[in-house]
Design a protein that fits this description.
The chain has a single domain, classed as TIM Barrel. The N terminus is likely disordered. It has an 8-stranded parallel beta barrel, surrounded by 5 helices. Strands 5-6-11 form a 3-stranded antiparallel beta sheet, with no helix packed on it. The chain has 360 residues and is of the alpha/beta class. The chain starts with 18 loop residues before the first helix and ends with a helix. The radius of gyration is 19 Å and the shape is globular. Bound molecules: flavin mononucleotide. The site of flavin mononucleotide has 27 residues, from strand 6, strand 11 and helix 10.
């Protein structure tokens, strides 16, 4: 297993989710403003992990090892970026059964993100609209938090991006700075160039700037591998808001650059499935059930172009084990959860990992 040296193995939890505790907690959290609920949830998870009480609500950890990008994952279900933005709750998410945790997005300097309110639940639609704007404590603090993590036995992805104030033509410097800082602690590094909440960021995903950026990253990856004797895969995270021509162009860039992996996808700026919700008029990216088909279509298009040459992490709208299985069938090697975890709780992790393990 690809682990950095400070981490010691956690004993897998064996209890199942306690539905009474979970439902009381969920009702309370959903009565709060979403961002307050998020902060409280993470603080509660950290406390429960620290006091070793998390196993009371933790689902059974599914053991289904798989090697992807040269990394051995304990199972195929991971936590998507944006949940643990500060990289300080990793062990708790591992305890809940995630085979891998992607922290961040982290940028070179700390940034506050967009003005509040910037996070909205569409409960009936099982969706979220977020306009967070990559609020984060900065890469140095993130790495410090990772280094302080103990009792995590999964795979760690570090998701990085540029600061909002950095112009796109200088973006590479920000990605390179974060990559150097994260190199020693990350099992893989994810490049976020598809967040719809940072002005113009998605312009970097056009073929020419993407090729330039990737050339820089791959060259630095070679240097760092040479210096440290350790290879850390680079994974690009794409938007679901691209047409077929753009997908094919980008897929060619990724194959030409020998990209290590792809995450498909980030949130969408479309509002299909939440048209009648008051929050639909808000700026931001839509995630959850309404994103599912769109993210899968994008995944299938990349999978078709890659023909197995680049592994894909499928994310977007997974609400059940069956949804996770369909992502694998569409061409993903691994999956990630975010909104489904908010709506369905930790049981979803186990459901997905089990459904994938048992798929025919
Ligand atoms: C509140 C919120 C914050 C997010 N922040 C990030 C982020 O910082 N970086 C990133 O790459 N993706 C971020 N995402 C996108 C998720 O990682 C994921 O790609 C997206 O939500 C689709 O998955 P889902 O439908 O399971 O939620 C965020 C999503 C949400 C809902």
């Amino acid at each position: 297993m690809a682990l950095w040296p400070r981490v010691t193995a956690a004993a897998p939890s064996t209890l199942t989710v306690n539905p009474i505790i979970y439902n009381i907690g969920k009702r309370f959290l959903f009565s709060l403003d979403p961002e307050t609920a998020h902060g409280l949830t993470l603080a509660g998870l950290r406390m429960a992990e620290k006091t070793r009480t998390l196993s009371i609500i933790a689902p059974r950890t599914i053991d289904d090892p798989v090697t992807v990008m040269g990394i051995k994952f304990p199972n195929r279900v991971g936590l998507a970026a944006g949940m643990d933005k500060e990289a300080n709750t990793i062990a708790a998410f591992g305890r809940l059964g995630f085979g891998f945790v992607e922290v961040g997005t982290l940028t070179p300097r700390p940034q506050p993100g967009n003005p509040k309110p910037r996070l909205f639940r569409c409960i009936k639609e099982r969706a979220i609209i977020n306009h967070m704007g990559i609020n984060n404590p900065g890469i140095d603090k993130g790495v410090e938090n990772i280094e302080a993590t103990t009792r995590f036995n999964g795979v760690l992805g570090v998701n990085i991006s540029k600061n909002k104030v950095t112009p796109n033509d200088e973006a590479r410097m920000d990605y390179l700075a974060c990559m150097r800082a994260a190199w020693g602690v990350a099992d893989y590094i994810a490049i976020n160039f598809s967040c719809p909440n940072v002005p113009n960021l998605c312009n970097l995903a056009k073929a020419a700037p993407a090729a330039d950026l990737l050339a820089c990253l791959k060259s630095e990856q070679a240097n760092l591998t040479n210096d440290t004797g350790r290879y850390v895969p680079i994974v690009m995270k794409v938007s679901p808001d691209m047409d077929e021509a753009q997908i094919n162009e980008l897929a060619q860039v990724f194959m030409d650059s020998q990209l290590d992996g792809l995450i498909c996808s980030n949130t969408t700026t479309t509002r299909k499935g939440v048209e009648n919700h008051p929050a639909a008029a808000r700026s931001g990216g839509l995630s959850g059930a309404p994103l599912y088909d769109r993210a899968n279509e994008t995944l299938e298009a990349f999978a078709k172009a890659f023909k197995g040459s680049i592994p894909i992490i499928g994310v977007g709208g997974i609400m059940s084990g069956e949804d996770a299985v369909k992502k694998i069938r569409a061409g993903a090697s691994l999956v990630q959860l975010y909104s489904g975890f908010i709506y369905n709780g930790p049981k979803l992790i186990c459901d997905c990992a089990k459904a994938i393990r048992d798929m025919k």
